[in-house]
Amino acid sequence: MTTYYDVPADQLISSLSSKLKETGAVTPPEWTYYVKTGTHKERPPVQDDWWFIRSAAIFRKVAIKGPIGTNRMSQEFGGSKNRGVKRNKAVSGSRNITRKILQQLSESNLIMNSMNSTGTVNRGKILSPSGQSLIDSVANDVRPLAEERFPELSRY
Fold it and tell me: For residue 101, which of 39, 37, 12 has the smallest C-alpha distance?
């Protein structure tokens, strides 16, 4: 069975974003058309479906790096802030966007909280079984396209 580790990230994210859009697992709020994705950005995103692409990227990162929380996830989508004549400084991406997407993925039962052994402390988000099956099925669908683009993948 093909997993999300076996296919390139760009093809997986594009297919996963279209799957999230058609299933209705995530819905962009009305403020997504004019918001920046971080303090290091100068303009809002130009793609109309950027919310679904970011959701798919966050979903993939939860699968790979989970358990992971909002703060660490926003650092993954950060960048360097242009501060004029001063040196650039690393800043995080928008925590609000990350938090809202994680909440929507959690409400659609694709991810869930990872608790400690006593069940009192949330350690971050991990994939749920339905999320695992969704990302594996999308990776299985993307596999022929990936082998067409990268013929050496057929050996694995």
Answer: 37
* Predicted confidence (pLDDT) per residue in 3-35, tens digit: 898 899 999 999 999 999 999 999 999 999 899
The DSSP line for the chain is: ---TTSS-HHHHHHHHHHHHHHHTS----GGGGT--SBTT-SS--S-TTHHHHHHHHHHHHHHHH-SB-HHHHHHHT-EEE--TTSPPEEE-B-HHHHHHHHHHHHHTTSEEEEE-TTS-SEEEEEE-HHHHHHHHHHHHHHHHHHHHH-GGGGG-
Report the top-level CATH class of 9-155: mainly alpha
| Residue 101 token pair | 């997407």
- The per-residue b/e assignment along 135-149, b for 16 or more CB within 10 angstroms, e otherwise, is bbebbebbbeebeee
Query: Is 0.70 topped by the overall pTM?
Result: yes
What's the chain's Rg over C-alpha atoms? 17
Q: Which amino acid is at 35?
A: V
